[in-house]
């Protein structure tokens, strides 16, 4: 037996243990799946943080360029400089696309444990079905273990997101240090409409 087989066996023992902590198998199933969801959240968060740290310079550069070009396009728009507005707006859209897809890729790093968990549960609980009170289209009269894991994982993610908001040392976004909100503040169109002009702080060259 090689090291990979040993790793799989050890991992299986760790994951199945919470399912055996209750004498009632139903309670054990739901509790074990809850613990498995916590493992998925933890593993995804660790992966996300590592990826964010590795890509922190790229993320900061994309965001900085996006905000800078957006602010310049808003200034050009209010100054009725159409040529510069179009050029800056095009650059801002391209920077936003790079930033968006980079963050989308980072977001995928959060979800990778879920398919792994589904695959593992299939080896252990693939035969289990839960009867529904009434048949549903596509699903039929019963559902499998995935109908428990996926909603429970979503609830765990929501719960974790609420916890992170209250953690003082959590950065606002990847690539930033705790307490930082970004290199440059983005001009809010709501604020411009409210004041009828761009706030003075955005005209300060030292901040742009």
From TrEMBL:
Q: Does the keyword Transmembrane helix apply?
A: yes
Q: What is this protein called?
A: DUF106 domain-containing protein
Keyword entries, A-Z: Membrane, Transmembrane, Transmembrane helix
Superkingdom of origin organism: Bacteria
Skewed-composition ranges (Basic and acidic residues): 187-208
Membrane spanning stretches: 28-51, 99-118, 138-160
- Region feature Disordered, mapped onto this chain: 170-208
């Amino acid at each position: 037996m090689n090291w990979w087989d040993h790793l799989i066996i050890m991992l299986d023992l760790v994951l199945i243990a919470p399912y055996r902590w209750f004498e009632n198998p139903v309670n054990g199933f739901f509790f074990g799946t809850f613990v498995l969801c916590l493992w998925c959240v933890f593993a995804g968060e660790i992966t996300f943080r590592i990826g964010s740290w590795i890509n922190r310079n790229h993320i900061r550069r994309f965001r900085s360029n996006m905000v800078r070009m957006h602010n310049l396009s808003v200034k050009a728009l209010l100054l009725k400089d159409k040529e510069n507005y179009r050029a800056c707006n095009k650059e801002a859209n391209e920077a936003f696309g790079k930033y968006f897809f980079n963050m989308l890729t980072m977001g995928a790093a959060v979800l990778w444990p879920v398919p792994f968990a589904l695959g593992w549960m299939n080896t252990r609980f693939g035969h289990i079905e839960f009867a529904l009170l009434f048949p549903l289209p596509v699903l039929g009269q019963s559902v499998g273990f995935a109908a428990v894991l996926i909603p429970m994982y979503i609830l765990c993610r929501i719960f974790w997101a609420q916890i992170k908001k209250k953690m003082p040392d959590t950065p606002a976004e990847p690539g930033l240090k705790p307490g930082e909100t970004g290199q440059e503040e983005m001009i809010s169109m709501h604020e411009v409409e409210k004041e009828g002009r761009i706030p003075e702080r955005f005209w300060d060259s030292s901040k742009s």
